[in-house]
Amino acid sequence: MNFRQLHESGCFVIPNPWDVGSARLLVQLGFPALATTSSGFAWTLGRRDNHVSLDEALAHFRAVAGAVDVPVNADFEGGFAVEPEDVARNVAAAAATGVAGLSIEDSVGNDLFDFDLSVARIVAARGATDLVLTARSEGYLVGRPDLGETIRRLTAYAAAGADCLYAPGLRKMSDIKAVVDAVAPKAVNVLAASDFTTVAELTAVGVRRISVGGALARAAWTGFLDAAKEIAEKGTFSALGRAIPFAELNGRFE
Hints:
The chain is an alpha/beta fold. The protein has helices spanning about 5, 20-30, 40-45, 55-65, 85-95, 115-130, 145-160, 175-185, 200-205, 215-235, 245-250; strands spanning about 10-15, 35, 70-75, 100-105, 105-110, 110, 130-135, 165, 185-190, 210. It has an eight-stranded parallel sheet with strand order 1-10-9-8-7-4-3-2. The chain has a two-stranded antiparallel sheet with strand order 5-6.
């Protein structure tokens, strides 16, 4: 099944690898598609989220998409540009990396772009590619948790040609259902970066796609830091004894 068909009915989980190795392991677990994570990738470079260059992001998309045989959605942040024509140029470059879709955010720093500019950016992105386009409204992540404004933006993005709508930070089922109803029949992505819901619950309210953002990367870093801190602070190695055996992990790679 291709990426666009996955969004047409039912609900699927699209987990977020941060490098080629994690992408290949997720495919082995049977996930039908993957999505990159800007934060997870940035941390592999020793940087904060949103501190990766356009060229670095494009190379990352190319590496992940070329390493697996399932569709990959690119976390394209804010398109690495402000003005619509620049977003369009960058989206065309991202589409050439082999990804099956990409997402565009409507925030810069700790605030949202102006409404009209945000819509124009989605129009420009739509005109630059026929891949699956996800439009994100970031109000709940930048301190503007306004459901009405979020729905106003997402419905406008749907009308501008976005295939999938996404408001990371939504956690109440009633709010999620309101978004699903507002943009129907377009698909809705929900971020499940903590234990506040289940696949069954999100499926029941009509969500089509579930991602986890940087949460899998954070889980991996948690294990790493717990083991390293034990060594640094106690001089003991018990956490290493709980790690997956070398042969088992090594055997998962070619």
